[in-house]
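Predict structure. Chain length: 269.
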Amino acid sequence: MSRVNGSLRPCWVVPVVALLLFLGRAQAAEETVTASFTDRAGPNHYTVVFPEELGGQVIEMPITGGQFRMAFDADAESARLIEWRQDIAPITIAGASTGPITVTMDAAQPSSGAYDAGARTFTVGATFILEFDDSVLSQYGFVSPFRLQAAEQGAFYGTGSLLRAAMYLEGTGQFGLGEFQYTCKTSAEVLYDLPQGFGQPGDVNADHEFDIGDPIACLSHLYLGVEAPCPGAIEVNGDGREDLSDAVCLLGYLFLGGPEPLGDPVACK
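Prediction complete.
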């Protein structure tokens, strides 16, 4: 059961509160998030396909790091990128290495887009700049820096300190000998500073993940005498008690589409 305005309601009722706590209290001012690209959040790579007349090569480009900063306005239903950087591992084209590749945003070209607070989705357009070693590749028409206009489509999921973003991008680019097609799947963890000794409700084992380990840690703490790394994170359904119903709510969230744990950080001890 969850407590809302002094009354109890079933745990399975999906609360709107989880989103309002972080992503868009209905106010006019812009909110901002900063997120780091990491494989822990999901896939991070580009796929580039060259046309058959140029060999039909398919190149995978793993993203090894970086971060972005985005501003959004729930009232205006708008979003824009403020900063963007991706680090990409070197690849080989026509026998020549690109060296490390960086992707940044052209600050001189304003970013703009749309944000849907209810669906937690966004689309943001920007001009991106790819920089690499073109000492050999320039003879094939690959010249650094390389500019690419594109629109990122994505969604936020999770809550509080475990908020994440998943994005998808596709399009066509031009170079000296022709054009290529590309897709990009990126995943990022939103940076969220938790005070010392605090944790995210539901992250009972304090591993910065929502997974089966959390209800296990909850049940072990309650019934087996094994102290959880963050006991304060056990209480997730808003009834003010740490008991079996919290583990049930966690399992419902993980496997049955139930409500996300509450968003505000709590004291672990």
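Summary: The chain has two domains: 31-190, 194-267.
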